[in-house]
What we know:
This protein has helices at residues 22-40, 56-65, 69-86, 100-115, 173-182, 189-201, 232-237, 239-242, 250-257, 269-282, 314-321, 324-334, 345-375, 386-405, 409-430, 439-456, 461-471, and strands at residues 6-10, 44-51, 93-96, 119-129, 134-136, 142-144, 147-149, 158-167, 186-187, 207-208, 210-212, 228-230, 260-265, 290-294, 297-299, 302-303, 341-342, 378-380, 488-490. The protein is of the alpha/beta class.
Amino acid sequence: MKPETPFYITTPIYYPNAEPHLGHAYTTVFADILARYHRLIGDDTFYLTGTDEHGLKLQRAAEAKGVTPKEFVDSMVAIYRNFWGLLNISYNRFVRTTDEDHIKVVKYAAEVMYRKGLIYKGNYSGWYCVDCEKFYSASEYLMIDGRPHCPIHRKPLEWTEESTYYFRLSEFREYLLNLLKNKDIVYPKHFRQEVINKIVGQELLDISIARPKERVWWGIELPFDKNYTVYVWFDALLNYLTGINYLSDKERFRRYWSSTHHVIGKDILWFHTAVWFAMLKALDIDPPKKVLVHSFIINKGLKMGKSSGNAVRIEDLLGRYLSSDGVRYLIARIFNLGKDVEVSTSLLDSIYNSELADNLGNLIRRVGVLIKKKLKGTLSSESIDNTLTDKADTAVHKFNKLLGEEYEISTALQEVMGLLKEANAYINSVRPWELSDPSKELYTLMEVVKVAINLLYPVIPESVSKVAESFSIQLGNPLDISVDVGKEYVVKEAPILFKKVR
Ligand code: MSP
C-alpha cells in the first residue's frame, strides 16, 4: 500500500476578545474545505485551529468585564468551539496558547534563541495598536486630527516606551530574501512580492518580543528574565509547532511539518512570512510549504471587524440560511484569495437562491421524484447520454485542478454549478415526465448528480450525505470520480435540500 501523504493545514489562532464573525468564519471554513478535500483524496490530514489568548488586548477585555483573564478566555473559547461546531468545522486540534504544552514550546523556543545570541535586551518606543497588538511606523499609520491612528482599526495609537528584549530579525535579511525569491511558498504570488518589497525597501529591524510584567502581566513568562512576558505574536506563531507535538513527538512533528499549509488573511502576512520564517530558521526548522493568503471581506466599504461595527454575525447567517451547509457554501462561493469582496444580504441571498435552492436543490428533488414516480424508485440503464456526461467528466478534472492545485474554491464551485445548469437544461429539453420509459435520461441525470455531490462533499457535507443516502450513491475519492454505466440506484426519497429565502 502506498504510504499516505501528510497534509497539515492551519488557520490563524483568533483573539477571543469577542465572538467570531463572518471574517473569522471565512478563513476557518476555507481551511475546513481544504482539510475535508485532502482527507477524501486519501491524505493523512491534520487540521489545526485555536485561540490566541495572551497579551494586553485580552488583559484589558477581561478587566473591562471584571473577571480574570483566564475566566474570560475560558468563557470565550466555549463560544468559539460552539460556533465551529455549528459550522461543522472538522479540526483535529483546537490549540489554546494557555495550554501547558504550548507554554513549554514558547519557553523552549525563547531559551534556544537566547542561547544562540538571537535575543538581546534593549529599549523601545513607538506607536502601538492594542487591537492589532503591533507597532506602526510613521510610513504606516494614519494621521487623523494630528494624531497617529491605526490604518486598520482607525483608532488612536498608544505611545509606548519601555525596556524589552529584541529578536534579531535583521540578521535574517539575506535568508528571507533568498527564500522568498526562490521558493513558491507565499500564494498568490503578488503577496510574496509585497513581502520582498517591504524587506528590500526598508531596513529590516529587530523586533521586540517581550513586555515588562508590570504593564502586560497576562502572558507567558520569559524563561531567562521573570520580569517580562513574551510578546503575543512571538507566543502565537509558535502554536503551529505545538499543534503537532513539536516537543513531545519528533517523528510526528517532522512528518506533518513537511506539508504545512498556513491559511491567513492578508493583514497578518508580515508576521507569517518575515517574522515566522526567521523564527523557524532560528530553531533550525524549515519554512512551511505554503502560506495561503486571502483578502478581506468588506462591509459598507470597510474591512469587516468587531471594532468597525460592521461585523456580520455567524448566528444571523445560520438563522437566515437555516443550515451550516448554506453558510459554508456562501463563504466558499464569495471566497477570494487575491481580491477584497464586498458582502451584502442581497448578494448572499441571490447566490443561495439561484445556486443552492434552484440549481442544485430543484434538480435533486425533480430527479428523485421522477425516479420514484416513473420507475418505482429503481433506476438502471445500459445506455447513457454522452453529451451531458462528458461534461461531468470535464467538471471533475477542472474541479480537482482548481481546488487541489490552485486553491480556487469559488471557481471550482462555479464549475459544478455550470454542470448542474446543463443538467437542468437537459431535463427541461428531454422532458422525462412525458416519456414512457425515461430510464436512459434519468440515469444520465443521476450520474451527473453523483459527480456533482461527490465534488460538493467537502463544502456541504450534510446535504451531500443526505442525497447519497436517499439515492444510494457511493461517495468516494474526488480524484477518481467518473461516470459509470450499468449501475443500479435505489431512490428512497426525494429530499428538499434548501428552502428559498426572501
Ligand atoms: N491572533 C492573531 C493571529 C495569530 S496567528 C499565529 C489575529 N487574530 S484575529 O482574531 O484578529 O484574526 C485574524 C484573522 O481573521 C485574519 O487573518 C483573517 O484570517 C480573519 N479575518 C478577520 N476579519 C476578516 C475580514 N473582514 N475578512 C477576511 N478575513 C478576516 O490576527
